[in-house]
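Support case: TLP complex. Customer-provided input:
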Amino acid sequence: MIDLRSDTVTRPTKGMLRAMMRAKVGDDVLGDDPTVIRLEEMAAEFLGQERSLFMPSGSMANTVAIKSWTQPGDEVILDRGAHSVNYEVGAGAALCGVMFSTLDMPDGILTPAAVESAIRPHNIHQPVSRLVTVENTHNRAGGTCYTLQRVRELRRLTKQRGLLLHMDGARLVNASAVTGSKPSEYGRLCDSVSQCLSKGLGCPVGTMLAGPPDFIERARRCRKMLGGGMRQVGYLAAAGIYALEHHVERVVEDHANARRLAEGLAEIPGIEIDPAKFVTNLVYFRFKAGPQKAQETIAALKAKGILIMLTSPDRARAVTHLDISAPDIALTLRTLKRLLG
Ligand code: TLP
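Agent response - structure generated as follows:
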């Protein structure tokens, strides 16, 4: 099976499984799981913050970050294509009671001018602009990356105007590999930052949410409220430790495979793609013949053991990861060529 639907589909490697089997565990809700404590210390340093918290998912990390920074009625400024707007089941509204003020950024990357235009004046009639969220890399925009300089500019603006800055860093290690700026350098500029363990880093589950101690204390209570307090979770934390030690640098291989894929797709007549746009592990493309051909092709690929996800009627996403090799990409391209030829 060549599963390109997402980088969330990876299976633990043998080394990771060994680390999980050997983990020393306790009860993390009672605060005494030694492996979780170690992972949280490592991730805090990795993300340039004082403390971190092991979350069950990236979605819960975003919700908990929003809930820990805001009051109901506050406004959160973010890109219209953001994961929190599109794929978190309305949690911002339902669980945090916040309004989303969405900006239309063509590449998903917020500019200080756009954010500034969305900040509300202090006025008794208006919601309070409280939080800016940036997504790095930006999923729906095709894995676009923030430069450190851009985050610095946003940091300056949010500080000046009394707002907070959260980074949804589900794929921050991928952004780092492209820009050369460390996750800790990005993290230091934000009030809170997350990094998923279950995507490019290859863990079965988990996301680290990092920030200052008072924020992490609120986040811990909030995670418990949402039912995300976990018990002998050191077995999963051990996978996270293993991933931070062994799987960070290797994401460049995923980027190289995504590049091979994007360039190969550009040579297939039935496909529309600008390969230069994809610099990380996410590749989006369109079937020129429209939705029916798209569906038929995806089904025919599936019958041959190749899984790709449609993200709209004629648009698909293919994601490279730990379980995808260069020969897998070559086979995918050969099969697609035959199907569309
Ligand atoms: N993204 C998933 C789907 O939910 C779309 C995927 O397959 O890409 N932030 C970003 C930028 C994400 O892409 C995702 C997952 C999350 C947060 C949420 O992570 P999980 O799946 O752990 O809740």
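Residues 251-266 form the longest helix (16 residues).

Case will auto-close in a few days if no follow-up is received.
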